[in-house]
């Protein structure tokens, strides 16, 4: 004779059977079902100092925290993340801003300069220091040769129209501040940057 089983009874039996099967399966595989003590992963930035800065990429100007460890020559950036105290982004960053760390610490980052002398057909590999010295030398030479102290009407302008500065979005806020001072100090008046922060 067929026995009537209610829907509630059926679900109880099915649930118990499935749980029993799952437990049996775990034990059969050598698993341990006793309560375990959980450990939080130690924060990677625990020993680091956090410096507030601004995402270099766009005009939104999201706040970031740059985590740095070590002293002197051993100082290195170990992490960059959103600054939760920033009223602009409250710690959030878009995918581009969230990848800022990779801008600074990246094995593919170029550390040498390719230089092709006037008239040469081959590129020469230069150390960065040598290239920087050469750029400084040419900037000083050009500035000195083209510096205008006064206009014909006697107005003091202290400027050079021969140099132009174009910044990029990957220059951070602090660099832009110092860069602007240097350019103005040299008398350069054509200064542009696409970042607009
Ligand atoms: S995190 Fe994104 S939105 Fe914010 S400043 Fe950087 S690039 Fe712009």
Task: Please summarize what this structure is.
The protein is of the alpha+beta class and 197 residues long.
Walkthrough of the structure:
The structure is a single chain. The chain is α+β, with helices and mostly antiparallel strands and 197 residues long. Among the domains are: 49-104, Single Sheet (N-terminal domain of TfIIb), CATH 2.20.25; 129-193, no CATH class. The chain contains 5 helices and 8 strands. The protein has helices at residues 7-28, 95-98, 100-104, 128-146, 173-186, and strands at residues 49-54, 63-69, 76-82, 112-115, 124-127, 148-150, 156-167, 188-193. The strands form 3 sheets. It has a 3-stranded antiparallel sheet with strand order 1-2-3. Strand 1 and strand 2 form a beta hairpin. 9% of the residues are buried. It binds iron/sulfur cluster. Iron/sulfur cluster is lined by residues 55, 57-58, 60-62, 89, 93-94, 96-97.
Features:
197 residues; alpha+beta; N-terminal domain of TfIIb; three-stranded mixed sheet; elongated; binds iron/sulfur cluster
Which percent bin holds the helix content? 25-40%
Summarize model confidence as the mean pLDDT: 88
Number of helices in the DSSP assignment:
5
Low-confidence stretches: none
Structural class, by secondary structure, is alpha+beta
Roughly how many Å is the radius of gyration? Answer: 31 Å
């Amino acid at each position: 004779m067929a026995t009537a089983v209610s829907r509630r009874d059926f679900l109880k039996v099915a649930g118990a059977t499935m749980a029993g099967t799952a437990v049996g399966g775990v034990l059969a595989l050598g698993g341990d079902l006793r309560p375990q003590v959980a450990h939080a992963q130690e924060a990677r930035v625990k020993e680091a100092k956090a410096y507030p800065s601004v995402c270099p990429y766009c005009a939104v100007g999201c706040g970031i925290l740059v985590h740095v460890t070590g002293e002197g020559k051993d100082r290195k950036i170990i992490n960059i993340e959103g600054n939760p105290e920033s009223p602009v982004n409250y710690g959030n960053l878009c995918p581009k801003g969230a990848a800022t760390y990779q801008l600074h610490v990246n094995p593919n980052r170029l550390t040498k300069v390719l230089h092709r002398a006037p008239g040469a057909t081959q590129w020469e590999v230069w150390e960065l220091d040598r290239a920087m010295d050469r750029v400084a030398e040419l900037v000083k030479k050009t500035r000195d040769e083209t510096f205008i102290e006064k206009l014909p009407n006697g107005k003091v302008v202290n400027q050079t129209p021969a140099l132009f500065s174009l910044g990029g979005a990957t220059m951070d806020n602090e660099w832009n501040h110092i860069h602007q001072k240097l350019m103005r100090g040299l008398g350069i008046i054509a200064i542009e940057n696409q970042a607009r922060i």
